[in-house]
Amino acid sequence: MKAYRIAALAVAASLMSALAYAQAKPEQQIEYRQSAMTVTARSVGVLSAMAKGDIPFNKDVAQQHAALIASISDLPLTAGAFGPGTDKGAPTKADPKVWSEADKFKAGYDKFIQAAKAMPAAAVDQKSLQAALGNLGKTCKGCHDDYRQK
């Protein structure tokens, strides 16, 4: 629970600084988007373990992680973390197609956001969580297959 609170505070700080980051250097933008993805992956990991039965389903914990995923899902787009020039400046696995196919990338990312925003409503029982995670996972895989370097 303590780790969740720390992550939530970090996300809150990120939210407050999103506008400042929109004008940040490319390497800062890259680090920002990677941080958002890392926090998302951590919460998806906990939810996946619950969905698989590897850890007991806990509705309160599931809803906290689902809400966190939903709340930060759009940060990389709204804060400009995939903006012009953010293809260079720091190590990144983002494929150059993110920028050359910006409209297609955004459409795929929008599907992720939509699936992420549906997570809190689904985090009420293991079966609903499984279905929502399956949908979320498809959106992640779609972008990673097309827009993430191997």
Question: What do these coordinates show?
Answer:
By secondary structure, this protein is mainly α. It has one domain: Cytochrome c/b562 (Four Helix Bundle (Hemerythrin (Met), subunit A), Up-down Bundle), CATH 1.20.120. The protein is built from nine helices and no strands. Helix 3 packs antiparallel against helix 9, helix 4 (59-72) runs antiparallel to helix 7 and helix 7 (102-117) packs antiparallel against helix 9. The longest helix has 27 residues, at 26-52. The chain starts with a helix and ends with a helix. The model has no long low-confidence stretch (mean pLDDT 90).
**How many helical elements?**
9
How far apart the termini lie comes to 33 Å
Provide the succession of SSEs: HHHHHHHHH
Which structural class best describes the helix and strand composition?
A: mainly alpha
- Residue stretches low in confidence (pLDDT < 50, at least 5 long) are none
**Relevant CATH superfamily:** Cytochrome c/b562
In CATH terms, what is the architecture? Up-down Bundle
Radius of gyration computed on alpha carbons = 15 Å
Entry summary:
The chain is mainly alpha-helical and 150 residues long. The chain has nine helices and no strands. It has one domain: Cytochrome c/b562 (Four Helix Bundle (Hemerythrin (Met), subunit A), Up-down Bundle).
SSE map:
Blueprint: H1 2-16, H2 18-21, H3 26-52, H4 59-72, H5 75-78, H6 97-100, H7 102-117, H8 119-122, H9 126-147
Helix pairs in contact: 1-4, 3-4, 3-9, 4-7, 7-9
